[in-house]
Amino acid sequence: MKARIHYIKGHEKSEQQANAASDSFGRNGWEVELVKGVTPDTLDPNEGYLSGDLKGGRLESFRTSEPRKYNIKKSCFINHVRHWRKVLEEGRSMAFVEHDAICVGPPPPIVTAQYIFLAMERALKQEVFESRSDLHRYKLKPPLQNIAPFPDNYPLRYYKESIYKGSIMTPGTVAYIVSPVGAKKLLEAIQKHGIEQSDFHINEANVPLSYMHPSPVIYNTNLNTSHNL
Questions:
Q1: What pLDDT does residue 226 have?
Q2: Domain ranges of the chain
């Protein structure tokens, strides 16, 4: 299983974390590739396979309220889009990994799910969810199998006034596996509805969400580069 680790070229801490991530995945039996990520400075706003912003989405709200953050979030999203296209190009499941991921376990021997989040056990404890007491109280019951669907009662839901409102969302994008079928669905949703913030786009309306247990990924220090590059 290939893990494609995304980092910011020229950002010292990002490069350090990406190297630590690469070492940890390699030690645990993953094939590793370091990928230089898109930034606002390298962003091509006319990248041909992207459409307009999702109406009512979080990304759209940044366009006028926080234009600098809009370009950061759009750059992040294009990293995912390119990964999904790479999955289709190679015709195999691959992991998208952010620089602040640390691997503590091997890849799954067989992948049949379309999307598998790899850091589920600690995801809702992230600082970004600190104000959400409902998320911190949530107890994830160990599933009966190594790869399981997100529980029906998972509390992280899409809340913006778009067509996705109420859908279960992935709790961030630190590390996940996507299959060719899943990648195709995520790309088709862009063409149909428009682009959205990465973790908001990955929701159950676009692709079935699964997770791996025990989680093979934990978190390094969050550099918050998706908020303030």
A1: 66
A2: 2-45+52-219
